[in-house]
Amino acid sequence: MAFRTSVRVRFGDEDHARIVYYPRFFHFFHMAFEDFFDQQGHPYRTCLDAGVGWPSVHAEADYRQPVRFGDDLDIEVTVPRIGTRSATFRYVGTRRGDDAPAVVGTVVVACIDMQTMKAQPIPDEYRVLFERHRASSLEPSGA
Questions:
Q1: Is 91 in contact with 139 (CB distance < 8 Å)?
Q2: What is the DSSP letter of 68?
Q3: What is the CATH number of the domain that holds 28?
């Protein structure tokens, strides 16, 4: 089952072409990542304060439709892969009111001990959280 959240595109998210500047989508993905934790009873700040970090180790995106200032971007988050010390998060962003995705991205995060900055096994409480949103494929919705 996918987790869903929304991001309002702000004036500062656009470039001179009046579309979202492409790296901003990775910021939107991270906002959805934080919401994924926060809105399911695992505040992201608490996770970090407990010394469990999630740095991105790989990221990619496909841009399919322009997104502009004032748009609401609905973001669907799934977890297609859960390893011992890393997980892959998939983000599908669709402008509210559209049928087809505007952006599809994947971000691989490593689970680290923030004291040592070394990889560690994903703690059980987060593994259970990730499993609830397990996806069977990296194929984007609406593709």
A1: no
A2: -
A3: 3.10.129.10
